[in-house]
Every structure is written in C-alpha cells, then in structure tokens.
Amino acid sequence: MIQDMTVGSPTKLILKFAVPLLIGNIFQQLFQISDIIIVGRLIGIDALAAVGASAPIYFVVILITLGFTGGLTVVTAQRFGAKDYEGVRRSVTHSLFAAFALSILLTALLMMFMHPLLKLMNVPDNIMNDAYNFMMLLSSGLIMIVAYNLLSGFIRALGDSKTPLYFLIFSSLLNILLNLWLIYSFKLGVIGSATGTVISMTISAVLCLIYMIKKYPLLRIRKADWRIDYCFMMQHLNIAIPMALQFSILSLGLMFVQSVCNSFGANTIAAFTSALRIEQLATQPMVALGIAMATYSAQNIGAGMIGRIRTGVRNSSLISLSFAVFIALLVRFVGEEIVGIFIENPSPEIINTAREYLNISTLFYLFLGQIFIFRNTLQGMGDSVIPLIAGIMELLMRSFAAVFLAGHFGYLGICYAGPIAWIGASTVVFIGYIITIYKLSRKQSKLTNQWKRSHKKNTYLLEGTPAE
Fold first, then answer.
1. What is the tally of helices (H) and strands (E) in the chain?
2. Are 257 and 279 in contact (CB under 8 A)?
3. What global pTM score does this model have?
4. Along the chain (468 residues), what's the average pLDDT of each consecutive run of 10 residues?
C-alpha cells in the first residue's frame, strides 16, 4: 500500500515502515546465511571457508549496486513527496537505464578479473577452485539481483515496505529449498549454492515486476516517459554515483580485513565468517530503522518539511540506542551457541575465535546504530557527499586496524577493525547532519520571512486602496 510519509506522526510512520523492512532484512540475511549453514554442514569446513573467503568480493559488488539503486530511488521518493507523479514515472525509466548499464559493466569486470581478485584476497590454494566457481556463477546472475533491488526500491519509494517483504520471504524460502536440493540430491557442492541463489533472485525479480505493473497505476510507464532527459539523468547520477562509491569504499574495507583474516587459515576464516553472519543478523533492527529514515526524509525533503525530518531523526536515534543495548546483550549471551548452527561439531578453537570477535564488537553497536540513522537521512535528503566522506573515514580506519593492529596483535586486531571504523564514521555523519539540517532550516526560515513580508506588504496595499 502506498504511504504518504509527509503527514501523520513521524515515529508511528517510521516504525510502521521499518517493521516490514526488519522482517525482510532478516529473511535476506537468512537468504545469505542459509548458504553458509548448508555449505558448512553438508559439504564441510573447506567449502565454508571457500564461500567465506570469496564473499567479500560479492559483497563489494552487491553493496555497490545497493548504493547505486538506492540513490536512484531517492529521486523517485522526492518526486513522490512533491506530488510530481509524472516525475515519479520518469524517474523510474531513467533509473532503469542507469541500473542496466551498471549491471552489464560490473558483470563484465567480474568475469574478466575474478581469478586475480581471489589471488589478491589471499584465498588459500586448497579452496581456490571452489571459491572461483562460486563467484563466477553468482556474477552471471548479477543483472537479476540488480533488477530485484531496483524494483523493490521503487515500491519502497512510495512508502510501501510490505510488498517487497513478501517477495523477499518467497525468494529466501525458495533459495533454501533449491540449495538443499542441488547440494544434497545432486551433489553440486558450492556450485549448487550459487545456482540456487541466482534462480531464486531471478524468479523474485520477475514476480516483483509483474506485481508492480498490475497493482501500482502510478508506476505504469507511458511512451513519453522513456525519453531521456540528460539533466534529469544527472540529477539521479549525482546521488547514485557517490552512494555507490560510498558503499564500495565500505565493502573494500571489509574485503581488506577479510584478506588479512584469510592468512590465518581455514579455521579462523570459518569462525570469522560465522561471527560476521551472526552480527549481520542481530543488527537488522538498526538497519531497518535507517532504511526507513531514507524514504521518510526523501519524501519530506520533497515536500519541504524540514521540521518533520528533525523530529523523525531525534526519535529514531533514541529508538536505535535502545535496540543497540538490547541486541548487544542478546548476542553476548547466545552468540556462542549460534556458531554451532553454521558448522557441524565446531572445534573449541573455532568457537573461541568467533566468541572473541562478538565480545568486542557488541560493545560498539551504539555507534553502528547511529551511522544507519544519520547516513540514511542525509542520503534521503539528497546529500551523498558527507556519507561518502564517512565511508572514506571508515575505510582508512579499517585498513589501519587490518595492517597495524593485526600486524602487532594478530586476530585481536581484526576484531577491533569494525568498532574503530564505526566510531569514526558515526562522528562524521552526525556532525554532517547537524550542519546540513541547520543550513536547510535557515534557508527555509529565510524564505518564510520573505513570504511574510511580501504578504504583509500586499495586504497593506489592498487595505489602503479604498481609503485612497
């Protein structure tokens, strides 16, 4: 259902929008985690290490496409907030052209440079073949993964976060069934895992397109909407490209840390992979709240309602802090037991390695939650420069931890890479938000005062006319 987020209680609207996102994000994580669980338990440690060691390359690409498509649909949400429905349709067509070009480019680059990238990641020779096959199959289906993210982004831009949830649940369950079938029955190994992912995402993208055309008249494209306006395309790219760069910088930092972790051997890779999956699943409430703020702020900036944005950010920030404390306590108590879900009969070494990471990272979830709130709000308002600067800060700090701290303290240094990066990035986006919202408020106040003076002058002239 389409939801106008420029009217009504900000907190209720944000939470109402965030809950389906949370459920969807959990299923999306299950979508990814199911691969890890099935591979780890049905194939073995080396196969799990192959998937985990190569996964950062895939995450780099996925995060680039998520940032790019997210930036494109920011314009869609802004046009919807401004009640410019022709602009909404034209935003859809321009976004489709841009996303298609990006997916073709990334697929070609991955196909050409996959083996050198895996070598750069220090993937051990004994798992290199599995890692290569896994990544090449995922790369072949990238265009459909991009298509699903873009189509669901259009729907969320109109304030509907429930419909993408239904398709995500379907694709997650289908992915699990296909993986079990292809790995257990056909003995395809990691190839079966990648094939199941591509098939499930393709089916979900097609169903999402059909549903969108039938149920959302606002998104039914007309012939005139396909005409490219290069100024309008640049408006999309001016947000999408910096967001893609920001996401790529974040993922490059993760890839850099993973490459250092890969040098510690298969057991450490498996433990680190399991711990990261637990963290990604646990932090989804904060992620969902941040995504909700992107759509909320985009619609309200389109409507010129700066005060509503400020109220939404304040309330969401407090909610995020509460989530961070609760999630941190939960992970510290049950995280160790969850490792056994990923690996059958994990050794004490693997459990202790995963627990060490979780015990450290949970202390800093407060900072991570605030990154999601302020970064997404800035992006929703069309400011992609400050989040990009924050991403560069995060990359530098992760790299510092991976090179310096890991060099001096080993695996312990890797455990502090994320928290150090979160502190730096949260500081940048918080200060950036304060400056941006202050400038927008002053600009709005100035325009309001000008209108009042003009209105007062016109009223005076009209009232004085009869007397003259």
1. 17, 0
2. no
3. 0.74
4. 83 88 75 70 75 77 87 91 91 95 94 90 85 90 91 88 84 85 83 87 88 86 92 92 80 74 76 80 87 88 88 94 90 72 70 84 92 91 87 85 78 85 93 91 71 57 50
> Which of 429, 382, 430 has the alpha carbon at shortest distance from 79?
382
With beta carbons less than 8 A apart as the criterion, state whether 432 and 381 touch.
no
Using DSSP's 3-state secondary structure scheme, residue 222 falls into coil
Which tokens in the block code for residue 65? 């496409």
- What is the distance between the alpha carbons of residues 109 and 111, in angstroms, rounded to a whole number? 5
Whether residue 351 is contained in a domain is answered as: yes
Range of the domain at 351: 11-449
Residue 239 domain-assigned (yes or no): yes
Is 465 inside a domain boundary? no
The total of structural domains in the chain comes to 1
Residue 170 lies in a domain: yes
- The distance of Cα 313 from the centroid of its chain, to the nearest Å, equals 18
User: Residues 2-42: pLDDT tens digits?
Assistant: 778 888 899 999 998 888 888 877 777 666 666 667 777 77
Q: Which residue has the tokens 């990035």?
A: 425
Contact of 21 with 163, CB cutoff 8 Å: no
How far is the CA of 124 from the CAs of 128, 131, 209, in angstroms? Answer: 6, 10, 41
Distance, in Å, from the CA atom of 242 to the CA atom of 346, rounded to the nearest integer, reads 41
Contacts of 463 (CB under 8 A, 6+ apart): none
Q: pLDDT tens, 335-380?
A: 666 766 666 666 777 788 888 888 888 899 999 999 999 998 998 8
- Cβ-in-10-Å burial (0-12, 13-18, 19+) of 154 comes to buried
